[in-house]
Write a structure and sequence with these properties.
This protein is an alpha+beta fold. Helix content is about 25%, strand content about 20%. The protein has four helices and seven strands, in the order βαββαβααβββ. The protein has helices at about 35-50, 75-80, 95-105, 115-120; strands at about 15-20, 55-60, 70-75, 85-90, 125, 130, 135-140. A five-stranded mixed sheet has the order 2-1-3-4-5, covered by helices on one side. Strands 6-7 form a two-stranded antiparallel ribbon. It starts with 14 loop residues before the first strand and ends with a strand. The relative contact order is 0.19.
Length: about 140
């Protein structure tokens, strides 16, 4: 199978961490013992120190709330060209998971480097999205 060539900004896209901070993820009510802001600060600091090889975004809700906290590791342009696809990580709350995600991203992320074995245990399936008469619905 031949993958399409990436053009423009997609070619140089960094590994991107999409961090859920919606109704369940990032919620002190659901996970009172976790420093949600501290984790986000660590991820953003790593991105700032990466020389443009890592980016961090937050989003309201990614969907699989039963696996909170959820984050998605999106491949870089190079990773995408090598067949890398977004990897969904569930239960991403402790420092060890954050360390594993950052190490994997620094080594190239999906398509470039294999995730640490401990992180593979936390890979989850993304929610299924269906289109119904112009409306998007997420099934969890």
């Amino acid at each position: 199978m031949t993958l399409p060539a990436l053009v423009g900004a997609a070619r140089d896209r960094p590994v991107t961490l999409v961090v859920c901070r919606g109704c369940c993820c990032g919620s002190p009510r659901k996970h009172p013992g976790h420093d949600h802001q501290g984790q986000l600060d660590r991820l953003r600091a790593a991105a700032a120190d990466s020389g443009g090889r890592l980016a961090v975004r937050t989003t309201d809700c990614l969907g699989p709330c039963a696996h909170a906290n959820v984050l998605v590791v999106q491949p870089s342009g190079a990773g995408r060209r090598r067949g890398g696809r977004p990897t969904w990580i569930g239960w991403a709350m402790d420092d060890a998971v954050t360390d594993d995600v950052l190490r994997w991203a620094a080594s190239g992320g999906p398509g470039v480097a294999a995730p640490p074995p401990t992180l593979e245990l936390q890979v989850i399936d993304p929610p299924r999205v269906t289109l119904t008469r112009g409306k998007t619905r997420t099934r969890r």
